[in-house]
């Protein structure tokens, strides 16, 4: 497993889920689609209008805010690694159980 990819995924998803208000004041964030974990999306999609309503992990239309497109791309690249994706889903399952 590439530790840099794992670190990028965990850091990106953790920061975006823990500090949505920090970037909300800036118009310069990116909607990073397809990387949100269950109940950790930043805004509405899939028929709902609220943050924290994603029904599952990695739904294509659910998104989190990232500081820029490069951060989003790094997270997307990281979760293509099956081990990273499995690890993040395990975290999501623990949080949501």
Task: Please outline the helices and strands.
Blueprint: H1 3-18, H2 20-24, E1 30-33, E2 63-66, H3 69-79, H4 82-96
Helix pairs in contact: 1-3
Helices and strands, in order, run as: HHEEHH
Strand content: 5-15%
Give me the secondary-structure category.
Answer: mainly alpha
Unreliably modeled segments = none
The helix tally amounts to 4
Strand order of the largest sheet: 1-2
Mean pLDDT: 79
| Number of individual domains | 1
How would you explain this protein's 3D organization?
The protein is mainly α. The protein has one domain (3-96). Helix content is 48%, strand content 8%. It contains four helices and two strands. It has a two-stranded antiparallel sheet with strand order 1-2. Helix 1 (3-18) packs across helix 3. The longest helix has 16 residues, at 3-18.
């Amino acid at each position: 497993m590439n530790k840099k990819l794992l670190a990028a995924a965990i850091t990106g998803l953790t920061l975006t889920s823990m500090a949505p208000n920090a970037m909300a004041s800036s118009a310069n964030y990116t909607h990073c689609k397809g990387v949100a974990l269950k109940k950790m999306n930043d805004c509405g999609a899939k028929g709902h209008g609220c943050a924290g309503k994603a029904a599952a992990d990695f739904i294509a239309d659910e998104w989190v805010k990232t500081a820029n497109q490069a951060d989003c791309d790094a997270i997307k690249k990281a979760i293509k690694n099956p081990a990273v994706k499995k690890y993040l889903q395990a975290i999501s399952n623990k949080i949501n159980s």
